[in-house]
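Project channel, design review

CF: Before we commit to the Dentipellis fragilis constructs, I'd like one complete example in the thread so the newer folks can see what an input/output pair looks like. Taking GDP-mannose 4,6-dehydratase.
RD: sounds good, go ahead.
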Amino acid sequence: KRKVALISGKHPLPSHLPLGGRAPFTHQISSMLPGITGQDGSYLTELLLEKGYEVHGIIRRSSSFNTGRLHHLYVDQHERVFSPSALAARPLTPVLVTRPTNLVYILAQVQPTEIYNLGAQSHVKVSFEMAEYTGDVDGLGTLRLLDAVRTCGLEKHVRFYQASTSELYGLVQSVPQDEKTPFYPRSPYGVAKLYAFWITKNYREAYGMYACNGILFNHESPRRGRTFVTRKITRAAADISIGKQACLYLGNLDAKRDWGHARDYVEGMWRMLQQPAPEDFVLATGETHPVREFVEKSFAVLGITIRWEGSGTQEVGINTKDGKVVVKVDPQYFRPAEVELLLGNPAKAERELGWKRQVNFDSLVREMVEADLKASRSLVEDQN
Ligand code: NDP
Ligand code: GDR
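CF: and here is what came back for GDP-mannose 4,6-dehydratase:
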């Protein structure tokens, strides 16, 4: 059986990026990935290549490089050297696509067996500043992709994964949150993803598509975007520890999140598309931790103990060794409406998918801090 995956976005200016597999469009299993250049896209690409998929990504045209997270997965077309795993020998081959109708062209050409719809304006705070854009990309974009699948007559042949989110729960109704917990999104991002959740479910019911929502709680890694709170903290802690930065400025220190490792979560995405029938699943760790604890543990990895003083916007974190203020609250990072508590219940995924997170909170923090420390140090060495 031919298996082709597509990791896709629903953006106005994507390009076409085939990766892996030895000859284009002939591999037995293939996937399509909009959002391939993001954190999850890079881990999912690794996983699918390992499983022998031909992977096609859709990327946006950018004036600067946006494929950094994928560089280890392909080699220069002039060298034609197969990587040790012999999986990543295909060069980046961009095909500029400018209109949503070109999604139809890509789908018709790739004929994916699986589509992972990861592309999104994924920053919650930014969504308040770019609400209409976020609604268009994250909400309507999902509809465009689903319609393109139907236009190509692939609705009975393709399996579709929608990157849904714990942000759908928003204002706490009850915890732990599972597949039956009511939604109450608290941001334009959450509202756009609510539309995407329901349109995915609607196309499943209306047209018999194999379409799943993965309701994923926060997942992080050394590849996490630098403006999300975990990575912002681990980078700053590393820089502060070697004297490159003085202070870290943060918003709400008391928000609680259920944080897992992205590598574990992409495994869950893939498992959702291998079931006999399409269903929606929560992926979470079942633990919750405040931002404040993420800060303390990150500095602790570097041998720095934090003492908190003051309250509200006046609160600061002090390095107990030298008395220096290393964390300050800056109200510009507060959100107009906040999601105070996320705590997921992954029981259904554990039971039906055999999925379980492998990386715990402390190991996640350590891995991220150590990666950032290594990067900071090598940058300093390069400059010297
Ligand atoms: P990232 O922000 O790291 O990656 C987002 C991807 O979407 C990138 O490839 C990005 O391309 C692309 N993208 C951004 N803007 C657009 C646009 N206008 N049109 C099309 N594509 C665009 O996100 P993650 O990898 O962390 O998350 C993947 C998906 O999962 C997202 O949909 C996110 O909302 C969702 N999600 C994430 C969770 C998490 O904790 N990480 C939890 C639950 C859901 P470029 O590189 O060019 O910017
Ligand atoms: P989130 O992630 O909004 O949960 O969305 P983020 O890391 O941005 O925020 C988590 C919590 O930390 C608080 N916070 C700060 N956040 C940021 N970014 N910067 C700060 O300086 C800061 N200070 C405190 C926030 O207020 C929030 O409470 C992520 C994204 O990946 C979404 O795409 C995904 O759907 C959800 O996770 C699940």
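RD: helpful, thanks. Residues 9-28, 77-100 have pLDDT under 50 and may be disordered.
CF: Residues 122, 124-125, 165-167, 217-218, 227-230, 232, 250-252, 255, 257, 291, 333, 335, 338-339 surround guanosine-5'-diphosphate-rhamnose (ligand 2) (CB under 6 Å).
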